[in-house]
Amino acid sequence: MTNDELQMAAFEIILNSGNSRTVVHEAFAEMREGNYDKASELLDVANEDLLQAHKAQTKLLQEYAGGREIKIEIIMVHAQDHLMTTMTLREVAIEMLALYKKMQ
After folding, report:
1. Known binder of ligand: residue 37?
2. Which pLDDT score is estimated for 70?
3. What is the CATH number of the domain that holds 37?
């Protein structure tokens, strides 16, 4: 895999997980206002962005498993960190939404 291809994959992961993170924070704001249906919709939107990031990650893993050499650079480490942090944040948001609903 060329350095350019790796960087493009990393930026795709960063872009999509960053978009997802923004939407998760919008969902938190809706939760605070008691707009639970809207928060749930936003978490679904956030998941769509995460799926796009995950597809880019999976493509890299498939290429690696197929024997293609992939040189890992700091940008890919950053991309992976972005993705995993956002996935965790969304999971926490789902739990918080359930707790908000339970408290009403």
Report:
1. no
2. 85
3. 1.20.58.80
Find how far residue 17's CA is from the centre of its chain: 4
| Backbone φ, ψ for residue 66 (5° rounding) | -80, 5
Find the domain containing 9 and state its range. Answer: 3-103
Cα separation of 82 and 102, whole Å? 30
Catalytic residues: 78
CA–CA distance, 78 with 41 (Å, rounded to integer)? 28
Q: Given a cut of 90, is residue 69 above it in pLDDT?
A: no
Q: What is the pLDDT of residues 13-65, one digit of tens each?
A: 999 999 999 999 999 999 999 999 999 999 999 999 999 999 999 999 999 89
* DSSP-assigned letters across all residues of 10-53: HHHHHHHHHHHHHHHHHHHHHHHTT-HHHHHHHHHHHHHHHHHH
Total domains in the fold of the chain:
1
